[in-house]
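Re: that chain you flagged

S.,

Sorry for the slow reply, it's been a week of failed gels. I finally had a moment to sit down with the sequence you sent. For the record, here it is as I used it:
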Amino acid sequence: MPLPRMYRVRQSFHRDRLADIPAGVRAAMSKASLPVKRGDTVAVGAGSRGVANIAVIVRAVVDYLKDLGAKPFVFPAMGSHGGATVEGQRAILAGYGITEDGIGAPIRASMETVDLGATDGGIPIHFDRTAFEADHVAIVNRVKPHTNFAGEIESGLLKMTTIGLGKHTGAALYHRAIVDHGFDHVVRSAGQVILGVAEVAEPALEPAEVEVGARDLRP
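Prediction finished late last night. Pasting the structure tokens below so you have them in one place:
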């Protein structure tokens, strides 16, 4: 049977790109109502997901905070990744190029958490102690669809705030609760508790650019 004539076709879609990443970070953060004062400590959370140019972004966040007179440090916000060990999580950050020399700030890693109570449904809330003891917490992450479920909130800033900053203890509790209540419900309800003890700065996020959320977690 003769086959019809066939052609190879390639379609290219327009993709917004940020040519100057540090400038984009600075522009986004300058639009936010950051409650950061001179001398404040700021815990900058970096996760274990593959965010392009994450080291450049984190360095830009650190530099901006330094310009405000703050004292930023970076911590791994990645739940139980890296074998749920300090060494493993530091190694993941280093693999992304996030080192103390590279970002110009200390890296403080701990698996210890503080207990922030529980959701109305009884889900215990845990939060990275190193981050909680800082004056502010900055979340550096991207917002994207999740690979395993669909919901109004999938993978992004709130997920890192709950599961990532819950460290191994919190991540284990949340994932067990997800079996009964679903991912969207657990992330939303746990996130509400966490933000309830925080003064939340208005984010200045630009789609396809840089996503930076600020959290003040001092009661």
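What I noticed first: The longest strand covers residues 41-46.

Talk soon,
D.
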